[in-house]
Amino acid sequence: MSHVIPAPRAAVIPVRGEAADASFPVRRVYCVGRNYVEHAIEMGFTGREPPFFFLKPADNVLVVAEGETGRMHYPSLTKSLHHEVELVMAIGKGGRDIAAADAMDHVWGYGVGLDMTRRDLQGQMKKEGRPWEIGKSFEQSAPIGPLVSAANCSITPDTKIELKVNGEVRQSSVIGKLIWSMPEIIEHVSKAWTLEPGDLIFTGTPEGVAAVVAGDLLEASVDGVGSLRLQIVD
Ligand code: MN
Hints:
alpha+beta, Fumarylacetoacetate hydrolase, domain 2, five-stranded mixed β-sheet
């Protein structure tokens, strides 16, 4: 069968510590909202609500290879492009109604991602009770660094997550401060959707979100998982 249009290209993320050309093809991108107490508070909430989720289209993923500096074009319509550094889980085994106790068997590995957000548009949509996509789901809105397999890294409650902008620390926390833990996130997501290999789950951002402008250099990291360098360009 021949396509009547060029086939869309799926995002494919390089993998560290495997064969040189090993990669992880992306199916869907799930994101958890307000999953660190201090961030929920800075957004005007108590930090104790049940988890909620949104998605980004897979083609919003901006792959940044090891040792490279990605280039994100400042997006249209916004005057307030915010950074949100997040630990990302990469699903290797699908399933639905996955119990938290079994959840980590479904995780292939991890990466460092940025949930880039047109905060002014998101705020406007929230106020009007409309969907958030225009604030969250747009081209290059999900930069991500190389993935590492769960076997090749260890994440503990003390694992540090950090974001620097132009060398200055803007966000700094530890994974133990997630309100909903990684197994709990998978339990909740898989009640609502059937997870499949290739799904990514952005686990939420700690406090310190703020705006960036063209020219800024972002350096995101999760200890033992990896890092991601991103330049904002016009
Ligand atoms: Mn986020």
